[in-house]
Design brief:
The complex is a heterodimer of chains A (314) and B (528). Helices cover 80% and strands 0% of the residues of chain A. Chain A is mainly alpha-helical and 314 residues long. Chain A folds into two domains: 54 residues, no CATH class; 216 residues, MetI-like (MetI-like fold, Orthogonal Bundle). The longest helix of chain A has 38 residues. Chain B has three domains: 125 residues, Dipeptide-binding Protein, domain 1; 145 residues, 3-Layer(aba) Sandwich (D-Maltodextrin-Binding Protein, domain 2); 215 residues, Dipeptide-binding Protein, Domain 3 (Dipeptide-binding Protein, domain 3, Roll). In chain B, 32% of the residues lie in helices and 21% in strands. Chain B is built from 19 helices and 23 strands. The chains are: A mainly alpha (314), B alpha+beta (528). The interface between A and B is large, with 92 and 83 residues.
């Protein structure tokens, strides 16, 4: 197994190296650099040249690339060019904010998904099923930028019970942070909750049609027990698989929701960094994404190899 | 096919449905569930007392950029909160004391003696002295600071200190915009300026101390207990919160989460105007102006008649009404009403007259068959203006193709002089002494500008207006008129409208004010 792992690592490193080169090259092809952004709209060439010199952008491209990779290997992400502060801090803060938002959304996805699924499948009242169906259809059909605006209008502007946007930090003021988190995470979660709810409803309906449920019903097992103890546990495994995929979508969708709710996550950071041509921030962010992808692939390969010895022997 | 009614589960009937609905409501009401704790909405409002105390939250549309601390940008509100300047202009551009208590020009205009306050300390406790002013001027000269008033700072040739609180500033030649420099130049701590441009430590003498800057979230400031103005400021703290999306910024104001903003978009101003709870104040000193630029080394923009035809063709009132939300002044000249160079004749030199524009094109024989590129930044404001310009030019037979550029690409083209034949953008620096526009704003710079316009006459007029001691008076006005005449005649920059700074404040907020360079002054601001 160790030998298999050792064989896979060089190719993973090669992918990372190639990705770093591509990221670096593509960014340099985009018009404008951080020096021109920082110089402002009334700057002369001497200002641009001075700032370029300060940032090291006047060095040959290969030297810039080598310097970036060298710093990365040493674990030093260095300072941001245009946003300000250290890249590691910026990415760390952004990652924390996005993770918090995604976890909040995951909570709502699971809770509302279960609610929709169970009510949709198990209620014998037609109006309840119709309402659930309408809610899930609405949650799927209405895009988050509309849901977000509506939520803000109702809960922040109309009722004034929740903040319209921003973030204070979970460690600094947990009670306030939860209030800031509520609307963006709900907005992000609604489409996923609808998908999950519908999938669970189908899954439960299939479970209810199984013989063992009919037998248990005939044996006099209470109906509530039937649902929670027998049908639901059997319906959940495929739903859990779907939840894994939805989590990835939540992370992607967070970018849009962050903008609506002024949530300072990775999406906002990436947009700001790209607009200002903040090369270190954009480069490190993109490479981080590639690294996560490569790591997941590597782990998947290892798990497959652990499960199927033939792969190890190949 | 399984049916949802395959299993009639009694417990999941109406009662269960109601329970489930209740659970959903509980989730949505988690905010209410946290009501025992503080409210995030109320926390934003702060513990407002009748006069003293409270936290003011300001909604801004772009984050503080430490590296641009010495450059005038679209968001420089924090400069007069953390720092002070030597003087402040009143509404008539008369300098009033700030850190400089008095000043005296030498008769030849080649030096000025400043008397400085002796009771000022930085937030870290260090005393403010003349050395800090010397540093501030020298700092602005550095090209990496990219300060628009660098040309004026470079006219300073030396200093003579007379004790800690008197300073003679020597000049290579008189400059009519010296007080623009003194209003523009924030007095930073010379020992920590490198930390300041990294956003780590902003040490000033202003009414609020720097507490923290969180990129993407904003700046947190706290009251400076040792501020040199007695009993000021009233507010305990100021938060500058970033809302990059116009809708999010509007919601922050409408929900009471923020109480002040200068960045509400034109279309949203109309919404706020009709709703209660806000006061909207216009600063007609201007927030810059919007214009159509022409690249003179590309045909047909090399023809003066062609450029003048464009100046006649554009409906400036429509630009003000539709793009600026009504908060602006249609004007063919760059000057706001408060400028010494302003005149009604200059403002209305070109009006909307498509017939005259067509006639001018016809008589000059300039070919208009080619579709011309019309560049603009991708911001909603500039896109809206570019569309209006495109339509108006089409009415006189000039076909254009819109070329949107993201702000960084646009800025590259602007400062490197590689703009397309025509472009739409905004400029600043007409709100202070007129010479500043021509020596500091790149589109108008006589030595080097985006349009590639060169003229000995223009250079002479600009230098003549700049190298004077007196910024006011009949002679000065004549010199400014000369610049206006050249700008209007040559039309390499075709001004469309002066933009007002628009302040949207909650009704309970009193006393915020902007300086001429859009630094926010909250010395007298309080929540009622």
């Amino acid at each position: 197994m160790r030998g298999y792992l050792l064989k896979r690592i060089p190719s993973a490193l090669l992918v990372l190296l190639l990705a770093s080169f591509l990221i670096f090259a593509i960014l340099r092809l985009v018009p404008g650099d951080a020096a021109e952004v920082l110089a402002g709209p009334d700057a002369g060439p001497e200002s641009v040249a001075a700032i370029r010199g300060q940032l090291g952008l006047d060095e040959p491209l290969l030297a810039q690339y080598a310097s970036w990779i060298g710093d990365l290997v040493r674990g030093d992400l260095g300072p941001s060019y245009a946003i300000g502060g250290q890249v590691a801090d910026l990415i760390g803060d952004g990652l924390g904010a996005t993770a918090e938002l995604t976890l909040g959304a995951l909570f709502f996805t699971v809770t509302l998904g279960l609610l929709f699924g169970v009510l949709g499948a198990a209620s014998r009242r037609r109006p309840v099923r119709v309402v659930v169906h309408a809610l899930t259809t609405g949650a799927l059909a209405v895009p988050p930028f509309v849901t977000g605006v509506l939520l803000v209008l109702v809960f922040a502007v109309g009722l004034s019970v929740l903040p319209s946007g921003g973030r204070v930090g979970l460690l600094e003021a947990p009670d306030l942070e939860l209030q800031y988190l509520l609307l963006p995470s709900l907005c992000l979660a609604l489409p996923s909750a609808a998908v999950l709810g519908r999938y669970l409803k189908d899954s439960l309906e299939r479970a209810f049609a199984e013989d063992y449920i009919r037998t248990a019903t005939a044996a006099g097992v209470p109906r509530r027990r039937l649902l929670w103890r027998h049908a639901l546990p059997n319906a959940l495994p495929p739903v859990v698989t779907l939840l894994g995929m939805q989590t990835g979508q939540l992370l992607g969708g967070a970018v849009l929701v962050e903008a609506i709710f002024a949530w300072p996550g990775l999406g906002q950071l990436a947009e700001q960094a790209l607009n200002r041509r903040d090369y270190p921030v954009v480069q490190d962010l993109l490479l981080l994404l590639v690294a996560v992808f490569v790591l997941v692939q590597l782990l998947t390969d290892v798990v497959y190899a652990a499960l199927d010895p033939r792969i190890r022997w190949e | 096919m399984p049916s949802s009614s395959a299993l009639p589960l009694d417990p999941l009937t109406r009662r269960t449905a109601l329970r489930a609905a209740g659970a959903g409501a509980l989730l949505l009401g988690t905010g209410g569930g946290l009501a025992g704790c503080r409210s995030a909405v109320n926390a934003e409002e702060g513990s407002a007392g009748p006069k003293r105390g409270g936290t003011l939250t300001i909604a801004i549309n772009q984050d503080f950029t430490p590296a641009l601390l010495f450059t005038q940008t679209g968001q420089s509100l924090q400069n007069r909160l953390i720092y002070n300047t030597l003087i402040r202009y009143d509404d008539d551009l008369e300098p009033q004391p700030e850190l400089a208590t008095s000043w005296e020009y030498a008769p030849d205009g080649k030096s000025i003696t400043l008397k400085l306050r002796d009771d000022v300390t930085y937030h870290d406790g260090r005393k403010f002295t003349a050395d800090d002013v010397v540093f501030a001027v020298e700092n602005l000269r550095k090209p990496e600071r990219s300060a628009q008033l660098a040309a004026t700072a470079k006219a300073v040739t030396g200093f003579e200190k007379r004790g800690d609180h008197e300073l003679v500033v020597k000049l290579a030649h008189p400059v009519s915009n010296l007080f623009d420099l003194f209003e523009f130049m924030i007095i930073t701590d010379r020992h920590s300026v490198e930390d300041a441009v990294k956003g780590k430590k902003l040490n000033g003498t202003g009414p609020f101390r720097f507490k923290r800057w969180r990129p993407g979230t904003g700046l947190s400031l706290a009251r400076n207990e040792k501020y040199w103005k007695p009993d000021r400021p009233y507010l305990d703290a100021v938060e500058l919160r970033v809302y990059t999306q116009p809708d999010a910024l509007l919601s922050a104001l409408r929900s009471g989460q923020a109480q002040l903003s200068y960045h509400v978009s034109g279309k949203h101003l109309a919404t706020l105007k009709s709703s209660s709870g806000f006061t909207i104040k216009q600063y007609d000193t201007g927030n810059g102006a919007v214009y159509v630029g022409a690249t003179l080394d590309e045909a047909p923009a090399d023809s003066k008649a062609f450029r003048q035809a464009i100046a006649w063709a554009v409906d400036r009132d429509r630009v003000v009404d539709q793009a600026l939300g009504g908060y602006g002044l249609a004007s063919a000249a760059p000057w706001p009403k408060s400028s010494p160079a302003y005149s009604e004749a200059n403002r209305t030199h070109y009006t909307h007259d498509p017939g005259k524009a067509r006639e001018l094109l016809k008589s000059s024989g300039v070919p208009t068959s080619r579709t011309l590129p019309l560049g603009h930044p991708t911001t909603p404001l500039h896109t809206a203006i570019a569309e209006i310009v495109q339509y108006d030019l089409q009415q006189i037979g000039i076909k254009t193709e819109l070329q949107p550029f993201d702000p960084a690409s646009f800025q590259k083209k602007l400062i490197s002089g590689t703009m397309p034949t025509l472009w739409v953008n905004g400029h600043g620096f007409a709100q202070v002494q007129p010479a500043t526009l021509a020596v500091s704003a790149y589109p108008f710079n006589e030595a080097r500008n985006t349009s590639h316009f060169r003229s000995a006459e223009y250079t002479e007029a600009v230098q003549d207006a700049w190298r004077q001691k007196d910024a006011d008076g009949a002679k000065a006005h004549a010199r400014y008129q000369k610049i206006s005449d050249l700008l209007l005649d040559e039309a390499f920059i075709i001004d469309l409208a002066v933009q007002d700074s628009v302040q949207v404040a909650a009704e309970k907020l009193r006393g915020p004010a902007l300086t001429k360079f859009s630094y926010l002054n909250l010395d007298d601001a309080h929540l009622v």
